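Supplementary Methods. Inverse-folding protocol.

Structures were first reduced to a discrete structure-token string of length 288. This string, shown here, constituted the complete conditioning input.
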């Protein structure tokens, strides 16, 4: 059976994730005390041959209170049953979490213990850090829109046939002025390329505009740079697949994340799609 344990910071998107897993035909249980997880898995295994219980997702987080500390022995027991759980940890920066709690007007689950939202977030991070360290997949949702977040989960966890199994590559663009992406595996700096920002006609456009693409590609350093990155990825990606890596995030940065990085990210994504890899694109700062 497939078991996904969804956990992470309150406000980081676990409710949205649970809905996406429901759409993928998972049986989803929210706010499950970890002590009950082995019993649930046992019952699902018992009915799996009847076409039920093969896909299970459970949300375990700080709402379980003192019961949360039993997550580690629960997972060990499940592994002894022959089920290898995948732990999905959802995170976000403090500022994003605070803003989300303000917007939803919901109380943090350990607010009463701390008497303040920032203190609650700090304590929750301490509680969840050991589980984050053991997670199979960590997603920072600080800058993700719901559509991209949904597609990311679908690509990573949807039941797939043999043709679609393997590595999912995310190609993302970003602006260095807004900080490095927290989930990047490989980061490339393209600030050495000619900058369309200083061309009045191109400044309002982004790197998906053909005029901006043409301008950036006209830089004599662009094609040789792309050729070297293509060569690097053509070598590395099969090695990552052979090693068993399921997710790879390649981040391309320029100053503001609107022009050069977007052009290069789109070129890399097209190159990898042409080799039949499963590719997602994200332009984090294109609208800033």
């Amino acid at each position: 059976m497939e078991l996904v344990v969804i956990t992470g910071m309150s406000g980081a998107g676990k409710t949205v994730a649970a809905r996406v897993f429901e759409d993928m035909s998972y049986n989803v249980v929210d706010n499950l005390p970890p002590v009950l997880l082995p019993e649930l898995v046992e019952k699902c295994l018992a009915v799996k041959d009847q076409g039920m219980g093969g896909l299970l997702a459970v949300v375990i987080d700080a709402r379980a209170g003192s019961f949360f500390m039993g997550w580690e022995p629960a997972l060990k027991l499940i592994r002894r049953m022959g089920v290898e759980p995948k732990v999905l940890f959802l995170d976000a920066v403090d500022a994003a979490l605070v803003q989300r709690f303000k917007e939803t007007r919901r109380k943090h689950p350990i607010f009463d213990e701390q008497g303040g939202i920032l203190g609650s977030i700090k304590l929750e991070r301490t509680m969840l850090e050991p589980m984050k360290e053991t997670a199979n997949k960590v997603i920072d949702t600080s800058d993700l829109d719901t559509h991209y977040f949904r597609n990311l989960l679908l690509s990573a966890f949807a039941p797939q046939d043999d043709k679609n199994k393997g590595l999912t590559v995310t190609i993302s663009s970003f602006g260095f002025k807004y900080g490095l992406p927290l989930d990047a595996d490989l980061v490339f700096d393209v600030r050495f390329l000619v900058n369309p920002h200083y061309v009045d006609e191109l400044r309002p456009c982004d790197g998906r505009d053909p005029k901006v693409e043409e301008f950036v590609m006209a830089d004599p350093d662009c094609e040789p740079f792309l050729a070297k990155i293509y060569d690097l990825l053509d070598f590395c990606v099969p090695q990552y697949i052979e090693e068993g890596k399921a997710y790879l995030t390649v981040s391309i940065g320029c100053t503001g994340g609107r022009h050069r990085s977007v052009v290069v990210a789109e070129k890399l994504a097209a190159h990898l799609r042409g080799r039949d890899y499963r590719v997602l694109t994200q332009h984090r700062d294109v609208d800033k």
